[in-house]
Amino acid sequence: MGYEKMSGACNPYGDGHACERIADILEGKEYYPWETGTLGS
Questions:
Q1: How far is CA 36 from the centre of its chain?
Q2: Distance separating alpha carbons of residues 19 and 22, to the nearest angstrom
Q3: What does the alpha-carbon distance between residue 4 and residue 29 come to, in Å, rounded to a whole number?
Q4: pLDDT for position 36
Q5: Which among 33, 36, 38, 29 is positioned nearest to 18, based on CA atoms?
Q6: Distance between CA 38 and CA 15 in Å, rounded?
Q7: Are 19 and 34 in contact (CB under 8 A)?
Q8: Interval 4-41: pLDDT, tens
């Protein structure tokens, strides 16, 4: 696999902003769920 293909791959473990979303939910703020992509697309 080349760098280009791997650099655009979806991270199956999330985007690193889960705690921000949880805090927003607990505070009653609007949030946008993280949507997964397809690996290798």
A1: 6
A2: 5
A3: 36
A4: 65
A5: 33
A6: 14
A7: no
A8: 777 777 777 777 888 888 899 999 998 877 776 544 44
| Model confidence at 1: pLDDT above 60 | no
d(CA 38, CA 5): 12
Residue 5: both structure tokens together: 């293909």
Q: How many CB atoms lie within 10 A of CB 10?
A: 13
How far apart CA 37 and CA 5 sit, in angstroms, is 14
What is the b/e burial string over 16-38, where b = at least 16 CB atoms within 10 angstroms of the residue's CB? eeeeebeeeeeeeeeeeeeeeee
Q: Are 39 and 33 in contact (CB under 8 A)?
A: no
